Amino acid sequence: MKKRVGILTSGGDCPGLNATIRGVAKALYQRFGEDVEIIGIINGYSGLINGDWRVMQPYEFSGILTVGGTILGTKRTPFKLMRVMGDDNVDKVDAMKKNYKDMKLDCLLCLGGNGTHKTANLLAEEGLNVIGLPKTIDNDIYGTDVTFGFHTAVDIATEVIDRIHTTAGSHSRCMVVEIMGNKAGWLTLYSGIAGGADIILIPELPYTIDNVCAAIEARAAQGKNFSIVAVAEGVYDAEEARMKKKERAAKRAEQGYTTATNRIAKQIEKMTGFETRVCVPGHMQRGGSPSAYDRVLATQFGSYAAKMVEDENYGITVAMKNNHVGENKLKDIAGKSRLVPESHGMLEVARRMGISMG
Ligand code: F6P
Q1: d(CA 144, CA 328)
Q2: Of all residues in the chain, what percent carry a pLDDT higher than 70?
Q3: Is residue 355 domain-resident?
């Protein structure tokens, strides 16, 4: 009997998804040859719910190592709605279990971030054989030191900050660059350091605008005619930090902002007199070809997942721990996230370099 392995990509995409899919597939074909069949599930859990899938052919996994996005398509299917009956009256969990059975899967590989892992764990609890693979540019999956997609996004955001430097200097401006990351500041912290940002603001450390402006003014006093502020999209100030999430969102809506970035820029201009501009690279940070680092990581993770299929080791997700590829139990990591801890060495590095953290 052929082994039947289902694979899906869920949540926001990132560079390295295809490289990981390829890593899994090549290692499976290498091990099982014609005795394995890979079933591609289209658009993540949505395809699993709606029965949208197809048997993949080996040639489909060739030439995708360098390709951004995901050949399987992806969609956000929120975990919190998994148990909620929609207008279509479909019980999503029952539908996923039924389609898993109809596809005659031996196991299901779920490539995704925190939300994807919560649903993967739910399916494992429901008795399906599930293996997770941690992707996200946010690098915030609990139990792994790194996720694929992160380092490529760091490279992209760093290039943005590099390019912003020259125009900031020419115009004697302050430039505020908004980097992706709603809850976790890893991407802003790493690209801010790599790009030589002067001020780095992350969601884990609520800022005060007085501290931000003081840092800009201190630079000006040293004769520096520009400043670069790297802002994670999820930052809030010390006053907002004391508010409940809903209250904060209501205040932002009232002021006409979604993220704090534009507000920060306006305040800087008013308080320091520096002409200030905002740059939002947005989804560019998730686009294009994965970096060499991410291709290697994706191949390590993908081939490890194939080994887990061989060992029938399910209910787990692949992880990097202290430079070794291993795994965590889904139940141990689902629902948790990995934020930048206050004691993290990289924050120490930033502070030693004189970078203001707001
Ligand atoms: O989780 C990855 C991420 O890129 C976040 O950094 C960002 O806040 C979010 O996805 C954007 O999501 P969407 O693709 O739905 O706009």
Answers
A1: 8
A2: 100
A3: no
